[in-house]
Amino acid sequence: MQGTATATNPTSIHRAAAGGLAFRGVSKHYGIVRAVDGVDLEVARGEFLTLLGPSGSGKTTMLMMIAGFTTPSAGEILLDGKAITHLPPEKRNFGMVFQGYALFPHLSVFDNVAFPLKVRRRPAEDIKREVGRALELVQLTPLADRMPRQLSGGQQQRVALARSLVFTPDVLLLDEPLGALDRKLRTEVQIELKQLHERIRTTFVYVTHDQEEALSMSDRIAIVRDGRFVQIGRPADLYERPATRFVAGFLGESNFIKGRVSGAAEGGFAYAVNGETFRQKAASIPAAGGEVLLAMRPEKIAIAADAPSTAINRAQGRVTSWNYFGSDFHFTVATASLGQLAVRCPAWRMKLEPKNEMQVWLGWDADAAVVVTDD
Ligand SMILES: Nc1ncnc2c1ncn2[C@@H]1O[C@H](COP(=O)(O)OP(=O)(O)O)[C@@H](O)[C@H]1O
Ligand SMILES: [Mg+2]
């Protein structure tokens, strides 16, 4: 971010003194709909936690309970160890940003950002100073006198951010805030948001259904499904070690392989599918004779015209479709042993001239896949 020289350091002002959140057995039921179903969660002060899940999985309901606009049917919500479950929203010092920006159209950028401070009846000189700092934080100082209609979508979203940060909230709640922005702008604002978080270290709870957004910004991601958490962890841990079929398929793309365990093999086990045997590294060996489900990322499979000499696992197949994405190629390959496999190859590594129906070899290492449970 390009900074303009100022007398004050915005980070010292905007660092909140609180912000550790916890859910203890929190539920929200609407009649027979279990929007949120008995969840536990710890969010450390200063953490960037993302709730990631499909539409209708309960993310907004969780955020609304943190904000205080929705009361849980059961359980407690704690802020720094104290129950706030029944505290009204205006008594929680939390900021909120939503998709629709909801700036006041008749107020200037300055007055929009000043609004929360006016509501709190702060003196005029405080307001001037704090709004100045908040605008600087989101790089909108030169646009303070503009009206919302004179701003781009990204700029409006930054005004909304400044407005939600101006009163130094303990926690910032963001519900799909970038949903209305086009792809390129969304990527830019993602980077800005992450940098902003790194500077102010306010607790962020961020809701999205966009896996890329979650992976690129969060300290931790909680995967939400049917009102529960399926898995919580750091982005790379979730991507590399999804626990279930759902997580492997929702966070990125995965091939799923169902095999029968033949027995232990060097650092893992061997399994058979349609008469062919493959090897997989694993910390714990599944019982011989049982079924095992593996998830394998398309980019972990190498594709070549000839049989790979180094890969531990290999399969011959036929290209049924291919697409060029600039940075990489995506293939669908029909194999005799494993059915259809999705394969990705970085463009710079491509040694094939891709053609439909061409015969290819696929190769992958013993640690290319992970064992997942079938949910
Ligand atoms: N006020 C409400 N009354 C009845 N059902 C609701 C209400 N709010 C949410 N739900 C239901 O709860 C579930 C979770 O909704 P929501 O939290 O909005 O999901 P998400 O934000 O993940 O899309 C959905 O099935 C939704 O229809
Ligand atoms: Mg929602």
UniProtKB/TrEMBL annotation:
Source organism superkingdom: Bacteria
One MF annotation (Gene Ontology) recorded for this entry: ATP hydrolysis activity
Keyword Cell membrane: yes
Protein keywords: ATP-binding, Cell membrane, Membrane, Nucleotide-binding, Translocase, Transport
EC code: 7.6.2.11
Pfam families reported for this sequence: ABC_tran, TOBE_2
CC per GO annotation: ATP-binding cassette (ABC) transporter complex
InterPro entries (UniProt xref): AAA+_ATPase, ABC_SmlMolc_Importer, ABC_transporter-like_ATP-bd, ABC_transporter-like_CS, Mo/tungstate-bd_C_term_dom, P-loop_NTPase, PotA-like, Transp-assoc_OB_typ2
GO terms for biological process, alphabetical: putrescine transport
UniProt keyword annotation of Lipid biosynthesis present: no
Cross-referenced SMART domains: AAA (SM00382)
Substrates-to-products reaction catalysed: ATP + H2O + polyamine-[polyamine-binding protein]Side 1 = ADP + phosphate + polyamineSide 2 + [polyamine-binding protein]Side 1
Segments forming domain ABC transporter: 21-251
Function per UniProt: Part of the ABC transporter complex PotABCD involved in spermidine/putrescine import. Responsible for energy coupling to the transport system.
Family stated for the protein in its record: Belongs to the ABC transporter superfamily. Spermidine/putrescine importer (TC 3.A.1.11.1) family.
Assembly and oligomerization: The complex is composed of two ATP-binding proteins (PotA), two transmembrane proteins (PotB and PotC) and a solute-binding protein (PotD).
Protein name, UniProt field: Spermidine/putrescine import ATP-binding protein PotA
